[in-house]
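Methods, example record. To illustrate the input and output format used throughout this study, we show the complete record for Transcriptional regulator, RpiR family. The sequence lines were provided to the predictor; the line carrying structure tokens was produced by it.
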Amino acid sequence: MIRERIRENLGSMSPSFQEIGRWLLDNYDAIGFSSVHDLSKTIGVSNASLVRYTQALGFKGYKQFREAVQEEVKTKLHPDSAVTLNELDLLPVKKQLQRLADNEINNLSKTLKDISVPSLLEMVEGVFSSNRVFISGFGVSKNIMQIFEYALTCLQIKDVHGITGSISDYSPKLRNITVNDSLFILTMPPYSPEAIHVATQAKKQGAQVFLFTDSANCPIYPIAKAVVRCANNSLLLTNSYVGMIAVIQVFINMLLLSSKGSLITHMKEIYHSEQQGYSFLKAQKEGLL
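The corresponding predicted structure is encoded as:
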């Protein structure tokens, strides 16, 4: 995919080319409908710079680059679904619910259609090749992080550690991250300073950094080994997390499929332990113990 090629080359390019690359990643669908003049003007660079950038990606020039992108452009939201907050407020409650639901369905659909399979596979390999797995999220992302942490803990592949809270809370865990560990970061705008700090420090300590986010504008994007982007279109000026939750579920299932049955055995053992626990509580409540 052209989008993946842009992302992979982002870190090795000059600052001016990185700026172009980040803009293209965030406005990918616009490329197929823009001339080199219009696009360079929108980005704020010269025509020649944009052409040289496409050549650095391996294309003869902008025309060939645009034609390649046109083949990959995905279906965007239906125009009728793009409404302003004021318009939404004027709709009957049933229509409001329908518009909001349709928007989240579109976020989910776009996330899964545009998902980078190589990036997900790299993340799967990152889990299996690590000594320990750290997962970090702040704000609302903390709740998704906890679901992710619990699911990975149940798989019993590696020791799993959550990193969240204040700097004082997470510093002892962050300090212990080493070159043999992996860190998964979950973050959405406005990109928590704590998340940026955790990712930057873990990278300095040699850990593999994997990122779930919505945009190439995320400050962690350039230092991540692999990135999965989650569509985040909102009608109410808030983040949409439906895509991120779905991707986490897909990722967990990919780990199960990659385990050749051993992880499923672990899951069954945990289920058996749970049933023993519930039986114990029931017996205690009934005075049988």
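Annotations derived from this record:
The chain has three domains: 2-70, 79-113, 117-258.
Residues 13 and 56 are 9 Å apart (CA to CA).
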